[in-house]
Amino acid sequence: MRFSTTSLIPLSVVGLAQAAHHQVTVGKGGELKFVPEVVKAQKHDTITYTFFAKNHSVAQSSFDKPCQPIDGAIFSGFVPNDSQDVASRTTFTIVVEDDRPIWLYCSQSTGDHCQKGMVHAINPPETGNTIEAYKEKAKDAPKSTSPHDGLPQVGRREIAVDVGKGGLKFDPDNIIEPVGTYVKFSFSPKNHSVVQSTFDKPCQFQEHGFSSGHIPTKEGTVSPATFNLQIKDSKPIWFYCAQPNGNHCQSGMVGSINAPTEGNTLAAFVNKAKTAPTPSTIDPSAPLGGIILVNGKEVKTFNGNELPAEFREDSNPSTTASATHSMPPAASQTLPAWGSPEVPDYFADKAGGHKPKHWNWADKLSPSASGFLQLHLQIENLITHLLWEAYLKLETVGEWKGVYPQTIVDAIGAWAAQSVLHSATTSTVMDHYEIKPFGGCKWKLPLDDGVVGFLEAWNSLNLVQIGALIDISAQIAKEDPFLVPVLLTQAGAKSRAAGVVNMMRGHLASVSPREIGVPVPLVWSYVLGNYVDSCPEEVKVEGLDKAWPGAKVANVEAGEDGVVTRVEVEYEGSGEHWVAWIGPWGELEYAKVEGGKKVGVPKGWTGDVFVVVVDKEGLGLGELAGHVVAGPEQVWL
Ligand SMILES: *[C@@H]1O[C@H](CO)[C@@H](O)[C@H](O)[C@H]1NC(C)=O
Ligand SMILES: *[C@@H]1O[C@H](CO)[C@@H](O)[C@H](O)[C@H]1NC(C)=O
Ligand SMILES: *[C@@H]1O[C@H](CO)[C@@H](O)[C@H](O)[C@H]1NC(C)=O
User: Fold this and answer.
1) Above 60 in pLDDT, residue 561?
2) 396 CA to middle of ligand 1, Å?
3) Measured from the CA of 55, which atom of ligand 1 is nearest?
4) Residue 55 belongs to domain with CATH number
5) 12 located within any domain
6) More confident site: 622 or 19
7) Where is this region: Disordered (predicted)?
8) Most ligand 3 atoms within 8 A of CB, residue of 205, 217, 248, 306 to mutate
9) Which run of H or of E encompasses 239?
């Protein structure tokens, strides 16, 4: 599979825009049924489940083990509801990632829903493993179980809340939902908001809390804008409408998420709000802590805290229907354009913060720094695409679903986001000095062979980028010192990622990666040789435009203690050659290439290191590039 840097950008936007939306009812009319029982869906289609009496769920099993969950696979959580014919405000939406069969069941064990035939399938075969065969198997299945934490996963669980519909109130005002659920607020007239407070200080904006801003809504309509936030933990959350005209909050327009049933209850909060000081307060900027969507598009900033007039009325009412169920977060977010210094809020939130704010700009940037940044940007872009693609495969209903626990999937998503931030930081520097980024290269992403190929690529790219950051920092320290902290904080972030990658690779010293400074020309050669399909003509920096022939390390010889003592280096060429071993802490040692291209390993070296075949020994790191015969190659000792 090949990607250009631009081919990924329309991935979700275009793909999802053309996708079909399917609706499935769960338990409607009091029946233990999914209707329709079978959905035929294509890649990128979405399926939304709506829930009726009694207390159902959507859970994924294998064909062979109905009524039992697959670890890390689709689960909606339970949705209790009394009504047989009014759907719950809570829905669950999944995105279909391919046309393979997906087997689903209701995991309610009280009343044996699954065994009684409450099963469902997406793209089941018409012969062999059919839906009938699955249902038949379910009859004799052991007691149903659900994923142990009971939380929704691999799909978007969402509850719809009305703001100001039929009076000064939130409906529902006492939201009880599991962690991970999205809350979608829709606004009725007049001019309402959803703002977070503490329990103790109702009607007062809580520092670092969320705020939708004021959403003025035309009489007789519902605003096209919705405010969306995700429940991140099980602590109670308190909110209010901050409209001071008419004292909405003090009049009872407050609500809660997961409020206790005793002590600090919602009723106690309503009482407290009655005597809260006026006027209610709101942060001067919005939106905060959540996302405003207008017809499915995000409105990032209001330039103040009032929704701008152009978004208040629905310019295209026919599109609102399809915008009412939003996509799961990962699939609906697109990577910023190539070379963009902008970081979408979604990525900044996921990365744990935005770009640096204080730059200490120097008057000018040295030409060598400029060249280094161009290459750094290319490599970072490659890493972003690798991580983001893998994250989509793991997070949504992709072919890698369930391979890793959710915490690891989340961590990979966070590192993808951080990589976006790192690219944008470099682009900001280039922007400041009016250096136009070269066009983006087309990458070869090793994602077709499962997670192992991904993991190895992530490991080596992470290491070479750390290597490059160290080398660049050392080389520019004199002329462009202001850049050093910017680059080395990136190295720090990548080093933490390297610890996790090592853990996932099952290594002993898992969280103690050691950083290796690899000269930038070698790093770029490595990237060109292994991950580049093609680059625009302009991607040439003097001395940095070469991919040396590859070197492969094979036939490892180890001593009795398992420590590697000799390796065989396969490369084209003959003559008197040495292998330069590049290790952590600036270590550099030489070993002569012997007959059969055997090479000794420096004593005591372990972990990830790099080798490069050179035609001279005793060179310094900075002199290596002038003497490369083959490589570099990464080796695990
Ligand atoms: C719904 O069912 C689940 C699983 O049996 C149970 O844990 C939960 O308490 C039920 N909720 C209600 C409100 O009955
Ligand atoms: C069931 O859904 C209806 C419609 O949204 C809602 O009014 C009702 O409160 C729900 N019942 C439960 C027990 O959640
Ligand atoms: C909405 O309410 C805010 C706060 O009172 C106010 O500043 C703003 O002018 C109102 N907007 C409209 C259109 O009424």
Assistant:
1) yes
2) 26
3) 1
4) 2.60.40.420
5) no
6) 622
7) 308-336
8) 306
9) strand 237-240
Q: How many whole angstroms from 280 Cα to the centroid of ligand 3?
A: 13
Tell me the pLDDT tens digit for each residue of 363-402. Answer: 999 999 999 999 999 999 999 999 998 998 888 656 787 7
- Structural domain contains residue 146: no
**What is the model's pLDDT at position 534?**
87
- Enumerate residues 6+ apart whose C-beta is below 8 A from 100: 123, 399
Measured at the CA of 610, the angle between CA 423 and CA 5, to 5 degrees, comes to 30
How far the first Cα of the chain sits from its last, in Å, is: 30
Residues 514 and 625 in one domain: no
Ligand 1 atom at minimum distance from 146 CA = 4
State the residue range of the domain holding 447: 330-534
**Residue 175 Cα to ligand 2 middle (Å):** 11
Residue-wise pLDDT tens digits, 10-59: 223 333 445 788 999 999 989 999 999 999 998 888 999 999 989 999 99
Relative orientation angle of helices 367-395 and 520-531, to the nearest 10 degrees: 40
* CATH number for 516: 1.20.1260.10
> What is the pLDDT, as a whole number, of residue 295?
80
Residue 360 is assigned to a structural domain of this protein: yes
Has this prediction a pTM greater than 0.70? Answer: no
For ligand 3, the distance from its centroid to the CA atom of residue 570, given in whole angstroms, is 72
| Mean pLDDT computed over 469-473 | 95
**Strands 532-534 and 552-558, bridge-based pairing:** unpaired
210: buried, middle or exposed (CB in 10 Å: 19+, 13-18, 0-12)? buried
Is 71 part of any domain?
A: yes
Nearest ligand, measured from the Cα of 279? 3
- 25 and 79 belong to one structural domain: yes
Please state the atom number of ligand 3 nearest to the C-alpha of residue 244.
Answer: 5
